[in-house]
Design brief:
The protein contains twelve helices and eleven strands. The protein is an alpha/beta fold and about 350 residues long. The chain has a seven-stranded mixed sheet, sandwiched between helices. Strands 8-9-11-10 form a four-stranded antiparallel sheet, with helices on one face. Bound molecules: pyridoxal-5'-phosphate (PLP). Pyridoxal-5'-phosphate (PLP) binds next to helix 4.
Length: about 350
């Protein structure tokens, strides 16, 4: 059975839009896209040809990402961050009012938003704080067995905000159960920070597996809005049917390509090492604080804490210009805060703020 059978039939059946740049590359006398014939800037600085529509999937960038993640070019879709990948997957695989996604909260909030926007149900198998926020693997497998509506399973490795990684044995079981039933998405936004093999290598034997990667975190490029969906060509083809005709602005594509060049890769490795050291510093400066009730160090570039008076601590830090993440509207995480690993300077500012909080709150 092909993964095409899991997609919304109307998406498979529709005639997709064919953009001018898709039909013909930007070479020759270009009179096919209603563009301006003149460059945007007069000073010969318009090397990006901004008056022209960009390549819908910039070839060199696709090649660079395929090389980075060790997949074929036709297994890559470049998107405006993983957020767009999540949205496209939900729109392709979930019929409004009929299908559902499966998630394991607390987790990244955009899975739920994408599902609700699409009119798909959200089946949640929650993690329990009493259980260290570990994923309820038996509950997830049972949900897939029982609930025929589930078309998309979202796993996050490492998970945001709990920082834990998906267990390999569990993933294998889940993939076996979901065969011909559901698409399994492993969101690896934080994969570079942890020391584990990526799920990408499992794509070969599991056509229903999709992996999301992004340049937003370890590649220091959140402002670029550039991510990649990695999947079988059939799945990529389905997503291409509904993605915007020109998702990536020319400057974004050029900068993303630059960010992936050899010198930048070396720099990224140095920064990952430094971030790892800074995380140890962060954990040390949190240790022994009277208001910290529990710590989940996790395997990503952040730490989750359960604290006494999360709202007060957050407001105190904000007054001193140190901004932390709170979860006031989440019943499970209400007492928790998430702290991203920053630079040494950021950590020094945080330490000062925490010292002052400790002094006033005891
Ligand atoms: C788990 C997870 N996935 C995806 C994203 C979104 O990534 P992007 O910036 O590529 O849209 C985030 C952002 O925080 C995240 O935590």
């Amino acid at each position: 059975m092909s993964v095409l059978s899991l997609a919304r039939p109307e998406i498979v059946a529709m005639q997709p839009y064919s953009s001018a740049r898709k039909e013909a590359p930007a070479r020759g006398v270009l009179l096919n896209a209603n563009e301006s014939p003149w460059p945007l800037f007069d000073d010969n600085n318009d090397h990006l040809s901004l008056n022209r529509y960009p390549d819908p999937q910039p070839h060199e960038l696709v090649e660079a990402l395929a090389g980075l993640y060790s997949v074929a070019c036709d297994q890559v879709l470049v998107t405006r961050g993983s957020d767009e990948g999540i949205d496209l997957l939900t729109r392709v695989f979930c019929r409004a009012g009929i299908d559902a996604i499966l998630q394991s909260p607390p987790t990244f909030g955009m899975y739920r938003i994408a599902a609700q926007t699409q009119g798909a149900a959200v089946v949640s198998v929650p993690r329990q704080s009493a259980n260290g926020f570990a994923i309820d693997t038996a509950g997830m497998l049972e949900a897939i067995r029982q609930d025929q509506r589930i078309r998309l399973v979202f796993l996050t490795s490492p998970n945001n905000p709990t920082g834990d990684c998906v267990d390999e044995g569990f993933l294998a079981e889940l993939l076996a159960l979901s065969e011909n039933r559901a698409i399994v998405v492993v969101d690896e936004a934080y994969a570079e920070f942890c020391d584990r093999a990526s799920s990408i290598r499992l794509m070969a034997g599991n056509p229903q597996l999709v992996v999301l990667r992004t340049l937003s975190k370890a590649w220091a490029s959140a402002g670029l809005r550039c991510g990649a969906v990695l999947a079988q060509p059939e799945v990529i083809g389905l997503l291409q049917r509904i993605i915007a005709p020109y998702p990536l602005a020319s400057p974004v594509a050029a900068l993303a390509l630059r960010a992936l060049q050899a010198d930048m890769r070396a720099r990224q490795q140095q920064r990952l090492t430094e971030l790892h050291e800074n995380k140890q510093i962060l954990l040390r400066l949190l240790k022994g604080r009277s208001f910290v009730l529990e710590t989940w160090p996790g395997e990503a570039n952040f730490v989750l804490l359960k604290v006494r008076d999360a709202d007060g601590l957050l407001a105190h830090c904000a007054r001193l210009g140190v901004i932390l993440r709170a979860y006031a509207h989440d019943s499970v995480l209400r007492d928790c805060i998430r702290i991203s690993v920053g630079s040494r300077q950021d950590l020094a500012a945080l330490e000062q703020a925490l010292d002052r909080w400790e002094a006033t709150s005891t």
